[in-house]
Structure formats: structure tokens, C-alpha cells
Design a protein that fits this description.
This protein is an alpha/beta fold. Helices cover about 30% and strands about 15% of the residues. It binds S-adenosylmethionine.
Length: about 325
């Protein structure tokens, strides 16, 4: 049967990333960039997000990942997550966070069923962490990592791989994955957003990362093809290790052909491709007295059909330019 959100290239959208805020308490050099914050009245209310999730579920979305900005800087986010988990037991609910404000919430989230947490951590060096993020909060992130592991959360650590920033830390990240039951993944630096310092020479390619990692551990590819909502990471088991190492070659070897993602920004714009600035405005339709959720459904169906092949956009981009002008912090990664 044809999936409800199947596009003209035969791809089925089953995964939606929902950004709940464009604000963040970190100032990561590669992410923040310049730009105004979205005014509060334009941010979707939690009830509106729940209504959109309800619709998404009807449209065959199976997995929702909350993101930001930093989701935990938004007031009431942990309560909202618990409520969302109770209301949508059929949805796989996940969250991606910098984990600086996560620590105290871990146990209740795990108990509520939010058991898939991605933590962004680009360096294992506290001083470098402060330089990259603009905040001296490394120890708080590590505490959250420990609490996630203790609570039995399915944990992934994501590090943006950047030449000249963390390309001297492969051994440390391999050791982290070897000694802990978690996935540690390097994500190639992507040309998203302007003024984020992206340039071709800063991209530390997945193949180079793997070649170096192989100096520190025996890596065996893990076949994730059987996992229904699998991500774009190539994962490797570490001989004698508890966790796994992975790479996401978002730039050098894009996976647009199998992309199953939609993105909802905190001001209610639907984006069908990370590398495109094309947006579909859901908030206006949702709040319009004569339109509402039925009109939103029509817009999402149309958007789903017209999802572009992102790598075509990437290939047209001059070197050292962002493909998409919007800051990553306001899209949600
Ligand atoms: N604050 C949350 C966090 O830290 O996970 C969620 C938002 S953040 C925008 C989501 C992810 O995007 C983070 O892992 C971040 O490192 C990543 N990211 C931001 N800019 C990026 C870029 N240009 N290339 C690759 N990843 C990027």
C-alpha cells in the first residue's frame, strides 16, 4: 500500500523532528551564528504541538524526535515530554539535547518511556568544551551521560567532526564507546546556516575518521538495515567493547535517497529537506479560524509529495557557502 507521505522519489516520511525552541544556552561556534530569535507569540504552544503530533501519527509518522535550540531551556519541556509519552504510546519518542539541563530529569523521563536520548558532545576536553560552546559546563554534560546510563536510557553521543577542532580526539571517543554501553557517532560538519564558519577544508570526512579509529580498535560493521526506523549512521561494533562507534557522512556521502525525515520548526514551519530553505507554514493555517487542522493536513500531504532530493541542492552550491541560509539552531539539526 502506498504510504500516506510518500514522495515522487518513492521515499516514505516516517520520522519527524520537532524543534520546540530556537533558543539555546550554549553558543557553539559552528551552530549559533547571527540572527534574531523567533518572537514568543510565534512559537507553537505545547497543545498545538500535540495536535500536530496527533495528525502526524495519522499520516504514518512513527518516530518523533524533539530538538531545539536546546529543548530543555523551554519552560515546562520535561513535563510536556512526559505528557506526550503518555498520549502517544504508539510513537517512538526521542530527544536530542546538549544535556546541560538534563541531569535532574533523566529518571522521570526514562520512567515515562522516553528512553532514547541523543546527547551532543563534540569534545572530551573540558577546556575545549568551554571554547567551542562558550560555556564552562562540561561536567554537567558528563553527569547527565552517567545518569542516562544508570537509568537504562538508550544513549547516543553525537560529535560534530571538525578539522582543527576535534580531529585529535578519535582515541578518546573510541575509548568512551569501548567502555560504555552507548553509540558514539561522528557527524560530518554540514553547510547549513550562514556565518557558522563552515568551509570545505573544515569537513573531517567519515572515511578519514574511520581509518583513524581503526588504529585504536577492531571495528566490525553492524548491519542496521533490518531496523525499521534506523538512522543514517554507519555503525561499527568495537571488539571487546560495550558500545559502538559510528559515522554520519551527511556531507561527503549523503543519504538523501533514503531520507525519511520531516522537520517542524518551533514557529510551525515544515521543512522537507535540511539543505533547502523551502518552508510550508503550518502555524498560520492551524491558528486560522476557518482553516485549522484539516488545512494543515492538506499542506503536509502536499509537502510530503514534493520533498526534494537534497543532494541536488548540495551539488549546486559553490564551495565554502552554506546551502541553507537558516541557522541550524532554529531548524533543530
Ligand atoms: N541543543 C540540542 C543539541 O545540542 O543536541 C539540539 C539542537 S542542535 C542544533 C542538534 C544537533 O545539530 C547537535 O548535535 C549539533 O551539534 C548539530 N549541528 C549543529 N550545526 C551543525 C552543523 N553545521 N553540522 C553538523 N551538525 C550540526
Amino acid at each position: 500500500m502506498r504510504s500516506i507521505l510518500e514522495d515522487s522519489h518513492g521515499r516514505k516520511a516516517s520520522y519527524m523532528r520537532v524543534s520546540v525552541t530556537d533558543r539555546c544556552n550554549l553558543r557553539c561556534v559552528y551552530c549559533a551564528g547571527a540572527g534574531d530569535f523567533i518572537p514568543h507569540p510565534n512559537i507553537l504552544r505545547y497543545e498545538e504541538i500535540l495536535d500536530l503530533m496527533d495528525l502526524a501519527l495519522r499520516l504514518s509518522i512513527e518516530k518523533v524526535r524533539f530538538t531545539g535550540g536546546e529543548p530543555f531551556v523551554r519552560k515546562g519541556f520535561a513535563d510536556f515530554l512526559v505528557a506526550a509519552a503518555a498520549r502517544f504510546p504508539a510513537l517512538e519518542l526521542c530527544v536530542t539535547t546538549n544535556a546541560t539541563l538534563l541531569g535532574d530529569q533523566v529518571e522521570r523521563l526514562a520512567k515515562a518511556g522516553v528512553k532514547r536520548i541523543n546527547i551532543s558532545l563534540d569534545t572530551l576536553d573540558p577546556a575545549k568544551f568551554a571554547r567551542v560552546t562558550g560555556r564552562d559546563l562540561y561536567s554537567r554534560v558528563r553527569e547527565s551521560v552517567d545518569r542516562c546510563l544508570a537509568a537504562g536510557v538508550c544513549l547516543k553521543i553525537n560529535a560534530v567532526a571538525m578539522r582543527g577542532v576535534n580531529d585529535d580526539e578519535v582515541a578518546g571517543f573510541v575509548e568512551l564507546a569501548r567502555t560504555h554501553p552507548m553509540d558514539v557517532r561522528f557527524i560530518e560538519f554540514m553547510p547549513v546556516g550562514l556565518e557558522n564558519g563552515w568551509k570545505d577544508s573544515a569537513v573531517w570526512k567519515a572515511e578519514d575518521i574511520l581509518a583513524e579509529a581503526a588504529r585504536y580498535a577492531d571495528l566490525t560493521p553492524v548491519d542496521t538495515a533490518c531496523i525499521k526506523t534506523r538512522g543514517p549512521a554507519r555503525m561499527y561494533a568495537i571488539e571487546g567493547g560495550l558500545g559502538r562507534l559510528g559515522v554520519i557522512s551527511a556531507y561527503s556521502n549523503h543519504f538523501c535517497d533514503t531520507c525519511n525525515r520531516l522537520r517542524l520548526t518551533s514557529d510551525g514551519k515544515l521543512r522537507t529537506c535540511l539543505f533547502s530553505d523551502k518552508v510550508y507554514r503550518l502555524r498560520q493555517a492551524l491558528r486560522h479560524p476557518k482553516l485549522g487542522i484539516d488545512a494543515v493536513e492538506r499542506i503536509i500531504r502536499k509537502a510530503g509529495r514534493h520533498k526534494p532530493l537534497g543532494h541536488e541542492l548540495l551539488e549546486r552550491t559553490p564551495k565554502d557557502h552554506g546551502v541553507c541560509r537558516t541557522r541550524m539552531a532554529s531548524i533543530g539539526g
